[in-house]
Structures are given as structure tokens and as C-alpha cells.
What we know:
Layout: E1 3-4, H1 9-13, H2 15-25, E2 28-33, E3 37-42, H3 45-53, E4 57-58, H4 78-81, H5 92-105, H6 108-112, H7 115-127, E5 135-136, H8 137-142, H9 144-154, H10 161-172, H11 178-183, H12 185-204, H13 210-216, H14 226-257, H15 259-267, H16 272-283, E6 292-294, E7 298-300, E8 303-305, E9 310-313, H17 315-318, H18 353-370, E10 375-376, E11 398-400
Parallel strand pairs: 1-2, 3-9
Antiparallel strand pairs: 2-3, 4-6, 5-11, 6-9, 7-8, 10-11
Helix pairs in contact: 5-13, 7-9, 7-18, 9-14, 10-12, 12-13, 14-16, 14-18, 16-18
Amino acid sequence: MERVDLQSxxxxxxxxAAYRGLRRASPVARVRLPVFGEGYALARHADVTTGxxxxxxxxxxxxxxxxxxPLRARWLPAVFRAVRHSMFFSDGADHRRxxxxxxVAFTPGRVQALEARIAVLAEALLDKxxxxxxxxxxxxxxxxxxxxxxxxxxxxxxxDRGEFRRxxxxxxxxxxxxxxxxxxxxxxxQTMAFxxxxxxxxxxxxxxxxxxxxxxxxxxxSRLNEDELLAMLFLLLFAGHETTVNLLAxxxxxxxxxxxxxxxxRDDPSVLPGAIEELLRYASPVEQAGARYAREPIRMHGETxxxxxxxxxxxxxxxxxxxxxEAPDVLNLSxxxxxxxxxxxxxxxxxxxxxxxxxxxxxxxxxxxRAPNLRxxxxxxxxxxxxxxxxxxxxxxxxxx
Length: 401
């Protein structure tokens, strides 16, 4: 059984060759992660899609006998342990209760109502892009747009948004090593305090925003308690903000590497719906689903995953599986069928998926129309990738128009 380092610089720069090797020779691979310890990674599309719905895999390690639970470790600051109260780390009836409460507030109608506002925000950012001189597309567009959208959705005052992003930056880019967690403790405490103040304000002065809706959401007589509410806000940041940053930036990077497909998208609006799905498949902004834990021994491909073992589902690998997709390493905006797993599947399907799709559907055509000659300002080999375990995103995307 092959062992793979999912956080090495070489792997982050180009994981797809490693994924290809795993699918062929070691579809059940051994991995070791800082804090979380050893586990198993599944690389094939069929195994990942099964795993996303497999009742033998628990999201809450407490539901898998003998599973390690680093989020309960005494040395881990309480501010990080609070994340365990989110639906990300829940199963069964507990997960359904939390998800139903969030659905009351995070409705498709609430998301769709943002479309016109997203266009206004995107146009304002595009107005500021320099002509001729290189600029970072992430810093200038792909980051501030989702930040403004999720901030408005949550009801974060505009004056607080700069502080909000600074506090979240280290947390969102953590490579999960002990040193990084210790270094991020001040930001985590300050972010939690920020959310507590926001929640208290919305209890007293509710508005037409997601935090107000979550504070007052009720399903079958149940409401989110304080810890669940704060954990949910952290989760929504990942689901409704950071994934969109990576989709916009890495999706644009993919289009720049495929100029023919870029021209098709710019010139033919009918391509757009399929293009968004193909960019999600090709770029996989969420590279791995959250860790699962085996409730019982699981036999796969001649290997046995023991009870309590951590299991990682490699979404990025599943989305490039040659047994599922023809020419998987080629960007094809007309690809059909396209059964990608960029947002997962099953009970833990990403709740932020409609928002990410909507932002990409509005923002990408505007970007291509306003910057028809957009191109990389540095060699592709000079681009650096972030160290986050679950998310795949560039540190910067220098371009010019």
C-alpha cells in the first residue's frame, strides 16, 4: 500500500499525476496528517461517490469506536474545539436537525435574490482593474467579491469587513500543523469574539440577513444553541466564501491555459451552465471531503480499513478519473455527462454550492467581457499554491489585460 504526502509542496503544485498513480496502483492509500495522524485515502470516482453516502463512515469520530478525535485534545485551544458543534462533524438525526435549521435560513430564494447585487459588486471591482499593468486577480477580484457577498449575506457591517478578512486569513489557509494552529490562536479568539458580538447585536436588532435568520431559525421546536450557531458561522465561511474564491481564481487560471475554451465561453452565453460544472470538475476548489471514520472494518481493493480509521475522500482525484471521464485532464466546457463531485454528495452535500455557482455564473462572464485580452503576467510554473489540506487554491494569480 502506497503512502502519500498530501501537503508536500510538490504535491500541491501538481497533485494530478500523483492522483493518477494512486488510482492505478493504490486506490486505497495510507496517509499521515499533522494533528489527525494516520489514515486512508480513496482515489477512484466510484469509491469516493460510494464513500460520500456510505453509512459505515461517520463524520463524528465519536460514532466510530476507537477513532482519534483531535478536536477533543486537551492541548487544542477551546476556540478550535468549538468547531465540533457544526453539522460538518455530525451524523444521523443530529446532522439532520442542524441542516434543517440552516436550510430555514439559507434558502435558495435568499441566495438567488443576491444575483443583481453580485453583478453590481463585480462591476465595481472590475472598474478598478488597471489597464496594461499586471495585477493580482485574487486580491483585486476573486477574493473581494465573495467576501463582499458573504459579508452582506451574514450582515457584517461594511466598516468591519477588512478586520473580518484579516482575522480569517490565517484560519482559512492553515495547513493543520501544530505550529500553525498555535500561531492562529489569537486570530481564532478574535474571530470568535467578532461573531459573538455580531450574534448579540442580531438578537437585539434582527435584520434581513443570514445571522438574524439563524439566530431565530426554529425547526420542530429546536433552535441552534450558542456553540452550534458560532460553529455554523465558521462553516458557512468555508461553504459560502473560500470555495468561491478558489473557483473564480483557479477557474480563470484553467481558462487561460485553454484559450479556445475561454473564447467559447466569452462568445457564446449558452455554454455558461456547462462551463461552470466543468470548471468545478477540472479545478476542484475543494480537494478533499471532510474526514470520515470507519464504524466497522471495510474491505476494499484487497485492503482492510480497520474500525476507527480516518478515511479521506479525494474529490480532486475522483474528478479526474479516466474510468468516469473521457480525457479527464482536458478542459471541455461542453462535457456531458459530467458527474463531478466538487461539492460532495449525499447528506453532507455542500450547503454553499448554490451560492458558489451563482457567483461564478455572474462574475466570470463579466470578467471576460470587461477584460477580453486577459492573460497571465508570469510563467505558469511561477504560480504558487496554498498549503490548505482540504482546499485547492492559488496564493496569487498575476494577470494583465
